[in-house]
Design brief:
A: mainly alpha; B: alpha/beta; Rossmann fold; 8-stranded mixed beta sheet; 12 helices; 31% helix
Chain lengths: 305, 341
């Protein structure tokens, strides 16, 4: 039998290597941030998102012209020094409306992503972790829900609530948008619950809540974040679609989707009325995807150096 | 107060005649192919196993891959529910325990896992991993908790300066020390070690074995040490159990199992260990077993080993299950012709 030294000296290969420096302990999030900022594409995405946020905030206090005011200049007026993005079919300033639209887009995108993620993550975790009849019920709900057209759900919801306020639009889109998140989280949970570290956590007396929040959810965070960043542009586009049908934010709210819809009739005459908000949508979508991908890579601990 | 001088450790009994854990006729069947109409079969991973682990000893559990030894370890540690049978620990049957009662019991009963890469949560720091058991049982908070974590890290040969590091920053041996520290921090009585060294480099294996021996002496621990290799177990174990296809073939104290194996399967396993002496090694005549290990879905009738046994006689070996019984003072073997090979 080995003798019992009073204290172990750090004697194995790890410390025997004298070139190993202790260094400062970097937290996972700090490290992720460092990796994110060395990814230029993700930084571009982040820059656009920050710009959008600033514009959205500024638009709540100041725009060059009121977003609703008609006849500021010539109808279908092209870009000029006074109106950099031109004027629309009733002579409203497109730059001002674009700024106001940024606030609507971000509110719908972020609000929907947040709300539908909460629903999807909660149901996905429960289904994947408890399996059995809980999973059967939740999976049945998801599959049935998939079979019902999103548009029908949203239309019914808007009619029943009898309000087109932005917060209800967000709720309406969220109750159709959580399905993919729930499926993703369920799949991740089913895989993670069988991992040895989850078994180990059980063996040290971790309760179910702890297993879900400390062991399963953090290890599924990468795919969840990526999924959530896809939800944002999808929600923005869905809101545009609703506006086109007259179910979105009511006029004269400067929703980008509504602006596109209003301009498409005069596409040959004054393309800028449609192209400017469409371009804003496209840039926003690319930026969100770039940032999401960067975030996914940055949050993967195996990428740590 | 250090862990070593805690009243729990002081009062812990080391009596290698006294059963700490009694496993009574435990089975674990995994159903397969059970459709809507039923009629599925089952993998009989553990099929009627009884033995005891005595206070303060190390019981080695060996067998080939797929013989059910890891499943048995998990059933004893209550990570898989047993299909039937009893696991009696400190006078209580663990098998019917559920929920909070079972969770409380886990304080006394810990596990060390085989794969030091898979068994640590990659999103938690070493300090969080080792501190989690304390958190789960509300045993120590704040400064006191971090002191306990520091102490256990030092005890397990880890530098407490690495508290805020993540598992992937460590080598395999270091990670296994983290796994051991996590099991030790609750000050358990009994530890199931599921092949704790088979995923490590040979040079590191001896360090982990020495650490485990040292911890056993200091904290009066009882081990069930699972391995697929008799030579590793020899060094550590007071007694050894040999498992084949879900059943125990032989149990004896390690001296007599190595010097005088009674079961032909044990003998075959022992004869396959290379001898570190060229002259003796040249003369070594391994007993080569014929064929593959049969499927645990449909195990052979009678003695499970009869399809590969060099001394099987028919029809007795294919018809009658040999009981695990005492052959020579306390040396148990399940063979109709024990000691005849």
């Amino acid at each position: 039998m080995a003798t019992a030294p009073s204290d172990y000296v750090f004697q194995d290969e790890f410390t025997a290597d004298s070139t190993y420096e202790v260094g400062e302990a970097v937290s996972l999030w700090k490290d992720a941030w460092r990796r994110l900022t060395s990814n230029y594409f993700a930084l571009f995405g982040l820059a656009v998102i920050v710009l959008l946020l600033l514009v959205a905030i500024v638009s709540q206090f100041w725009t060059p012209y009121p977003t609703w005011k008609q006849g500021i200049g010539p109808t279908y007026g092209g870009p000029s020094a006074a109106h950099p993005f031109g004027l629309d079919q009733v002579g409203r300033d497109i730059l001002s409306r674009l700024m106001g639209g940024a606030a609507i887009a971000l509110a719908v995108g972020l609000g929907t992503a947040l709300l539908s993620s909460v629903i999807g993550i909660a149901l996905g975790l429960l289904a994947g972790f408890y399996r059995g009849w809980v999973d059967t019920m939740i999976s049945l709900l998801i599959n049935v829900w998939y079979g019902i057209p999103d548009l029908l759900v949203v239309m019914l919801f808007v009619v029943i609530i009898n309000s087109r306020e932005l917060k209800w639009i967000i709720v309406a889109i969220s109750i159709t948008a959580w399905l993919n998140m729930a499926r993703l989280v369920r799949g991740q949970t089913l895989a993670l619950r069988e991992r040895e570290f989850v078994e180990a956590a059980r063996s040290i007396g971790t309760r179910d809540v702890g297993l879900l929040t400390r062991h399963i959810l953090p290890n599924a965070l990468g795919p969840i974040i990526v999924q959530a960043t896809y939800l944002i542009p999808a929600a923005i586009l869905f809101e545009a679609f609703l506006s086109f049908l007259g179910l979105g934010a009511p006029p004269p709210e400067p929703s980008w989707g509504a602006m596109c819809a209003e301009g498409y009739k005069s596409l040959q005459l004054a393309a800028h009325v449609t192209l400017v908000p469409a371009f804003a949508l496209a840039i926003t979508l690319i930026a969100l995807n770039a940032f999401g991908d960067g975030l996914r890579d940055a949050l993967d601990p195996r990428m740590r150096r | 107060m250090t862990l070593e001088t805690s009243p729990e450790v002081e009062s812990r009994v080391v009596d290698k005649q006294l059963a700490l854990v009694s496993v009574e006729d435990v089975t674990k069947h995994f159903p397969i192919g059970a459709g809507l109409l039923g009629g599925g079969s089952a993998v009989r991973a553990v099929d009627g196993v009884s033995f005891e682990v005595r206070a303060g000893e190390t019981l080695g559990l060996v067998g080939e891959s797929g013989c059910g030894k890891s499943t048995l370890g998990r059933v004893i540690a209550q990570l898989h529910p047993a299909t039937s049978g009893k696991v009696i620990f400190q006078g209580q049957d663990l098998v019917p325990m559920r929920g909070e009662k079972l969770r409380r019991m886990r304080q006394e009963l810990q596990m060390i896992f085989q794969d030091p890469y898979a068994s640590l949560n990659p999103r938690m720091t070493v300090g969080e991993i080792i501190g989690e058991p304390l958190k789960n049982f509300g045993l120590a908070r704040g400064k006191e908790r971090s002191n306990r974590v520091h102490e256990v890290m030092r005890t397990c040969g880890l530098n407490p300066n690495f508290l805020n590091r993540y598992p992937h920053e460590f080598s395999g041996g270091q990670r296994q020390r983290i796994g051991i520290a996590r099991a030790l921090v609750l000050n358990p009585t009994f530890i199931v070690a599921d092949e704790p060294i088979s995923a490590l480099d040979v040079s590191i294996q001896a360090q982990i074995v020495n650490l485990m021996e040292d911890l056993q002496n200091r904290f009066k621990l009882t081990y069930l040490f699972i391995a697929h290799d008799l030579s590793v177990v020899r060094h550590l174990s007071d007694r050894v159990a040999v498992m084949y296809l879900g059943k125990i073939m032989e149990i004896a104290d390690s001296h007599s199992i190595y010097e005088n194996p009674l079961h032909p399967y044990t003998k075959a396993l022992l004869s396959s260990i290379p001898i570190p002496d060229p002259d003796l090694e040249a003369k070594r005549q391994p007993i080569l077993l014929q064929g593959e290990i049969p499927s645990p879905v449909n195990p052979p009738s009678g003695c499970r080993f009869h399809t590969r046994c060099p001394i099987a006689q028919f029809p007795i070996c294919s018809e009658q299950v040999p009981p695990l019984e005492s052959k020579v003072d306390g040396h148990l073997a399940a063979c109709h012709f024990a000691g005849q090979l």
